[in-house]
Specification:
355 residues, mainly beta, Lipocalin, 2 domains, four-stranded antiparallel β-sheet
Length: 355
């Protein structure tokens, strides 16, 4: 896999800072296993050893570690709902822990009974995956889950034989007591719509404040930002780039990353330039160079924080392998700030030891 680095580390970085927007009030998902609370200045991430860390977004410092759960699912009103690691002997149980977001202390726990054959996996395994989210709903949390399994046939399946199984369900939980108030779930025929883009960059049109926006063009040509106000009236178009490949929105839909191919991929001339804009005003905030075309990201104060995929490179003839991580770089100076390792939840990713 190609290595990810910023031009500031090798050939310098061009910065064009224009000010920074206030952080969003609602937590959002950077990637599967990383929930961000910009308003509180914290991130809640799944770690390779099977724990959850709360991370200070300004410094990368670990605020607390919890071994009571392995995967953050939802955050609201100072409570973090998290998934507990599946026991070695698999059961059809979905175990949850409700943690104090400020200190990591376990406040309550809950268990949701799943349909027969469904496993509440934290990490994907052999063509099987389980996803869940938790959202505040009044005094309760609504926990929604989805399960997908590839069917393995000894012989080639017939045209009408199923090749995949899909299950979905939800439960409402009292976070104070862990009591299951309502629960349902069963087999479905296809991927529910809300899961098709789970963990992917937000799809256009993007909504930030009273502005709805999308881009037009790209693929090596001019890229234009097209916007409408709250009443649906068009706002003036804004030219973002004369030669962009595409654009992706930040995880909180407040910024836009336009990706341009400008270099030859050598250490001193990374292949891609990232140009970051505010979505609502099209004001340019910064410019960075990278060996990957784009990655999930968000802006926190004066830092660009992004997912760094696993990659390897040679340093003085020695191979260096970098794990999956969340990384921050200072926008005003181009100086890398911090990097914290994340748990790889994909099939074949690192599994924590049994506890």
């Amino acid at each position: 896999m190609k290595r990810i680095f910023l031009a500031a580390l090798a050939a310098g970085m061009t910065i064009a800072a224009t000010g920074f927007a206030a952080p969003p009030s609602s937590p959002f998902l950077l990637r599967h296993g990383a929930i961000i609370d910009s308003a509180g200045g914290s991130g809640y991430i799944a770690k390779p050893n099977g724990t959850i860390d709360a991370v200070d977004l300004a410094s990368g410092r670990t605020l607390w570690t919890s071994a009571d759960a392995a995967l953050p699912l939802g955050l609201d009103q100072n409570l973090l709902v998290a998934q507990v690691e599946e026991k070695p002997r698999a059961t059809e149980q979905f175990h949850l822990a409700i943690l104090d977001a400020a200190g990591g202390r376990k406040l309550s726990e809950a268990t949701i009974t799943l349909p027969g054959g469904v496993r509440a996996l934290v990490a994907d395994d052999k063509g099987t995956s389980f996803r869940a989210t938790a959202e505040r709903e009044g005094a309760l949390f609504l926990v929604s889950w989805y399960y997908q399994e590839n069917l393995v046939h000894a012989l080639a399946p017939k045209p009408l034989d199923p090749t995949m199984l899909f299950f979905a369900g939800s439960a409402r939980i009292n976070p104070q007591t862990g009591k299951i108030v309502t629960a349902d779930g069963g087999q479905v025929t296809d991927v529910p719509g809300r899961w098709k883009m789970y963990g992917s960059p937000p799809a256009a049109p993007w909504q930030t404040g009273s502005v709805s926006a999308r881009t037009e063009g790209g693929r090596g040509g001019p890229l234009t930002l097209k916007r409408t106000d709250a009443a649906g009236r068009p706002l003036p178009d804004q030219a973002l780039s004369k030669g962009a490949l595409f654009a992706v929105a930040s995880a909180d839909q407040r910024h836009l990353l336009a990706s341009e191919r400008v270099g030859d991929g050598t250490p001193d001339n990374p292949e891609y330039r990232w140009v970051v804009f505010f979505i609502d005003t099209a004001a340019r905030t910064s410019e960075l160079r990278s060996d990957v075309s784009a990655t999930p990201f968000f802006v926190f104060n004066d830092s660009l924080i992004f997912e760094s995929r696993p990659h390897g490179y040679l340093r003085a003839g020695v191979r260096v392998d970098e794990p999956l991580a969340m990384q921050a770089v200072r926008l005003s100076t181009g100086v890398p700030q911090w990097k914290v390792e994340l748990r790889d939840l994909s099939d074949g990713g690192h599994r924590p030891p049994a506890r």
